[in-house]
Amino acid sequence: MAASLASLSYSIKTGVQPLFNRYGSHRLRPSCLVPLPPSIGKHITSCSWRQLSMKKQSALETTDGAVNVELDDDEEEETCELVNRTEVSIDSVEAHLLTAVKNNNGTGLLLLSDVFGFQDSSTRDFAYRVACNGYNVLVPDLFRGDPWSKNRPKSEYEEWRRGQDLNRIRNDIRTLTEWMVDEFAAAGISKKLGVIGFCFGGGRVVDVLAADKNGYFSTGISFYGTRIDSEVAGDVNVPVLFIAGDTDPLCQLEVLKEIKEKIGEGSKVVVFEGRGHGFVHRPKTPEDDKDAEEAFSVTRNWLHQNLLRGN
């Protein structure tokens, strides 16, 4: 299906890269690559991992009370039969398009990366896991080939950030959104979309939804968004899930709660005690891993309630 989505008026790159060559952001088991012949112009990844959990309920702090996440008492295998990855170029914006093949639920998601860009393994691993749950995920290059690098001096960060024109990024996202709507509709996929973002991308989620005058998006999820423009929050007309840690200096909880109130009914702020910045897609400790799994469960339930049930 992904090949048909990308084959109309947009160029496709078909270079095969190793995927999941280490344990992923959520300590997933390494996947197995099943490359197709080069002439087909795509490759399919078979993902399978085992998730161990003890029977319990974990209460997460929210601004509305507790959100309960059920964890099974037995070892279960979460299997994604096939995920198709295609590299596309949409009006000069490079992107990965990940589509679930066997369990596709017909819903599209736009995933906005952190400052390390769409090629970063942590973002890519998370996108694969979302696609494994049945979604069609587009991960664009927000920085037009100039992401922030861990090797650059921190003293250069603000200068680099100023060089990332937010108006250009907004225009790119608008173009990508219209492409998703047109191409997914032509392929028989729902026109309703969701948007997810981390850090820098999490900050853009509110911008995207506030500017969505055509009502393309049904919901958004912002993971520890940075520099969110609270002034436009009142223009958001769909529920937004905000996930953050209470020790994150880059994402102030009071700001998130203020934005949530401006958006209104249906939105939530979910706070993980003791967690810092990036803990969901870049866990550093066993405690981060545990809460990252719970955050993913909350994310999956939110998407199901606000995208699948609503379509």
Automatic annotation (TrEMBL):
GO terms under cellular component: chloroplast; cytosol
Predominant place of localization: cytoplasm
Dienelactone hydrolase domain boundaries: 101-305
SUPFAM superfamilies named in the record: alpha/beta-Hydrolases
Family statement drawn from the similarity comment of this UniProt entry: Belongs to the dienelactone hydrolase family.
The keyword Iron belongs to this UniProt entry's keyword annotation: no
GO molecular function: hydrolase activity
Name of this protein: Carboxymethylenebutenolidase homolog
Gene3D superfamilies: alpha/beta hydrolase
InterPro entries xref list: AB_hydrolase_fold, CMBL, Dienelactn_hydro
UniProtKB keywords: Cytoplasm, Hydrolase
Subcellular location: Cytoplasm, Cytosol
